[in-house]
Design a protein that fits this description.
heterodimer, A: about 350 residues, mainly beta, 4-stranded antiparallel sheet, 2 helices, globular, B: about 375 residues, 5-stranded antiparallel sheet, 4 helices, disordered N terminus
């Protein structure tokens, strides 16, 4: 059997030395203890968490004088497990995490210190993969009087993590932003113009490995005017790069854009898509770093029409459309602007 | 079909004829049901069903469980092989179910979440989608209010449908990963179709998908956009949090509840690719509230929508009232936490997280009691 995982003899906290009647080790993979391996033929090996009433589920296999118990999810770091054979305690162990990488918050987008009254989304970038299903217990918004703003965020299930669980999207309560919906009429906007707010992420929020952030994260921002304009490429300014150089292309949006715009832009020429990386310099400026040096000629910058500004207005339509004002909807799928490299 | 049976019947006496006819019909029914089963599971393969995130569950016919997996960007159809009819299922009543599930998985309740619940309509077993904080997901089965087990998916019989094709392909980040996450918020099977709603971490809008089952890669409704109106003046789209299907006056509808509280219906026949579908807002269900789950139950010829909510008790709405409610909401509601539109009755069940129909007369609920105890229990249709 090919086992990519490496075996690490268990050297962690052994709580019941007298109970270690068998020699054993934990099979670890990606910082998690995936299985218990015990010397001897023990087909009736059963496990339970210390203090639990019932035994846990898992697959027990006996091969070559070794018994392996594999639970359906990895053993939880920090919990103590007892292994039994016919009601006799044969060993105990407490898996610990060798990787002590402390998670931190790398950035919160938008970076601006002034946000529109109808602001919609924060993106929180962590340095480590984080735990799932618990974030909203650790997320708070306080007004300038220091009072917590109740019902500021919508608690989504599932949470909106990226694939590596290092980037989380959170939404301000949309029912309070959308004009004339019940929550908006009765409770008003979450954010009020000309007031200051404090976004706080509790330091007890943990990484996937169970290690907490440690310190509370704070972002202080002010609230400005409501944004009731659709973004438009007409306001964009492109700082063209020079040919034969691997220079960065800079785009000034003319207004703060949602962080997801980094994934909704592309540059092409007559030969096809130009490969490279998009980096948000700040909320109103983005850079494109090409893989290869620019060649002279005509290029086209295209944006997916569903890219949004900070208030959730996209190129097609406003976040909420006032039908009495007959705000027209644009139906183009993409918007683009041409530029030259000389 | 054996036509010689018919010839022999002519010479038989009446009693034998009836008996033979019965046997023949029974054989034909069996043959057709076996054929139907073959059709639905014909493309199923056996292997390791690797689920990354079990977000939503719903049962289809013949013990097939549909599982929405946001991490994989797929819908799986799992043959649970749990198809023994159980007409006399006992009530479910399990207190501290999170503690018991946690013990089964070898962890503690604070390290896991029950993401969804579905009842197998044939066996009446309860299935739970359980997610550990480290991201692992498992399927837990509870039989007859007693036996709790983890469903082993390493040798499962299943089919799958990718959702990736339905999502625009985006530029990748520095390491070639897409920033996009399309999180499945609800999933339902109805009339040969699997329907899903989702939330995107990039765009704020409604995403509704429907695909035929057995899967054939067809997702014609992927670009559907559903709008709803707020009091006649504002038109907006918003992600759907929970939905179900219902038949009203012989017509099939999708009944959807949005993250921003309106209850909206639209005819299933309107769900066509690329259409700008405007749903009819029939109620605003109050503030401080997020819809969590909804089902339809029948009693005395009437159908009722039951909806679980984050901050309000389970609501009961007579479908006939929705059917008869004409137009969209136009009246303002002045009082705090007021609601508008069709009448609903608040049932005395607060903090219900999940619900599903157990049989024609009963439904099961996952409810957080006032003392913090998470209980799986059964209510009957006297509440309807």
């Amino acid at each position: 059997m090919v086992i990519k995982a490496f075996l690490v003899c268990f050297l962690g906290a052994i709580l019941h030395v007298s109970a270690q009647e068998v020699s054993f080790s934990l099979i670890r993979e990606n910082q998690s203890a995936k299985a218990l391996q015990v010397t001897g033929d023990l087909p009736n090996l059963k496990l339970k968490v210390a203090g639990a009433t019932n035994f846990m589920a898992g697959k027990c296999t006996v091969f070559n004088g070794q018994t392996t118990f594999k639970p359906y999810i990895p053993f939880t770091n920090g919990l103590t497990y007892h292994a039994y054979v016919q009601d006799r305690l044969v060993c105990s162990f407490t898996p610990t995490n060798d990787d002590k990488s402390m998670p931190t918050i790398k950035a919160v987008f938008p970076k601006a210190s002034v946000l529109p009254e109808n602001f919609l989304k924060f993106y929180i970038r962590f340095t480590e993969p984080m735990e799932v299903g618990k974030f909203y217990d650790y997320l708070h918004l306080y007004n300038q009087e220091g009072e917590e703003v109740d019902r500021a965020f919508i608690r989504l299930s599932p949470e909106l993590w990226n694939e590596t669980r290092t980037l989380l999207t959170v939404w301000i309560e949309p029912g309070r932003i959308k004009r004339d919906l019940g929550p908006n009429r009765q409770l008003g906007q979450v954010l009020e113009k000309n007031k200051t707010y404090r976004l706080v992420i509790d330091g007890r929020f943990r990484s996937k490995q169970g290690i907490p952030l440690g310190e509370n994260y704070k972002k202080i921002f002010e609230v400005g005017e409501r944004d009731e304009q659709k973004p438009t490429v007409g306001n964009w300014k492109i700082e063209s790069p020079t040919r034969n150089k691997q220079e960065r292309l800079k785009i000034y949006f003319g207004e703060a854009m949602d962080y997801a715009v980094t994934q909704m832009l592309k540059i092409s020429n007559e030969r096809g898509l130009i490969e490279g990386v998009w980096v948000m310099e700040n909320d109103v400026t983005i850079q494109f770093i090409p893989e290869n040096a620019w060649k002279n000629g005509s290029y086209r910058l295209t944006v997916n029409g569903y890219a949004e500004d900070l208030a959730g207005n996209n190129f097609h339509r406003l976040f909420d459309v006032d039908l009495l004002k007959s705000e027209a909807e644009d139906v183009e799928a993409n918007w683009s602007v041409a530029f030259e490299v000389k | 079909m054996n036509f010689s049976v018919d010839l022999k019947l002519k010479e038989a006496n009446n009693l034998t004829m009836k008996k033979n006819l019965f046997v023949s019909l029974f054989a034909i029914i069996l043959m057709f049901s076996a054929q139907a089963e073959d059709d639905l599971k014909a493309k199923f393969k056996v292997g390791n069903l690797e689920i990354k995130a079990m977000n939503a569950l719903d049962f289809g016919p013949e013990g097939i469980l549909f599982i929405g997996d946001s991490e994989n960007g797929k819908v799986f159809a799992l043959d649970t092989k749990d198809s023994k009819a159980n007409a006399e299922a006992a009530d479910f009543n399990i207190s501290s179910i999170d503690q018991k599930v946690a013990e089964l998985l070898g962890t503690t309740p604070e390290n896991m979440t029950i993401s969804d619940l579905a009842v197998n309509p044939i066996s009446k077993s309860v299935y739970l989608a359980v997610t550990h904080t480290n991201g692992s997901s498992v399927l837990v089965k509870i039989e007859d209010n007693e036996q709790m087990s983890v469903v082993d998916l390493s040798q499962a019989s299943f089919d799958e449908q990718s959702l990736e094709d339905a999502v625009a392909v985006d530029a990748k980040d520095r390491r070639g990963r897409s920033l996009r996450k399309w999180a499945i918020s609800d999933l339902n099977y109805s009339n040969g179709k699997v329907m899903l709603t989702g939330l995107s971490n990039k765009e704020f809008g409604s995403t509704f998908r429907a695909m035929p089952f057995p899967f054939d890669g067809d997702q014609k409704m992927s670009s559907l956009e559903i709008y709803h109106a707020a009091h006649g003046q504002y038109e907006t789209d918003s992600p759907i949090k929970a939905f179900t299907t219902a038949t009203m006056a012989g017509k099939d509808y999708v009944v959807a509840s949005y993250t921003c509280t309106p209850l909206v219906i639209f005819p299933a026949s309107d769900l066509r690719a690329g259409e700008h579908v405007k749903g009819r807002t029939v109620a605003e269900l109050g503030n401080w509230n997020t819809p969590l789950d909804m089902i339809v139950m029948q009693k005395d010829g009437a159908s009722y929508l039951l909806m679980a909510n984050s901050a309000r008790s389970v609501m009961k709405i007579k479908l006939e009232n929705i059917e008869n409610f004409s137009g969209s909401l136009t009246e303002r509601v002045e009082e705090r936490s007021g609601t508008a539109g069709v009448d609903f009755i608040a049932l005395p069940f607060v903090n219900v997280l999940q619900l599903d129909q157990l049989d024609d007369k009963r439904f099961v609920m996952l409810q957080r009691k006032a003392d913090g105890n998470l209980q799986l229990w059964t209510a009957n249709n006297r509440w309807l």
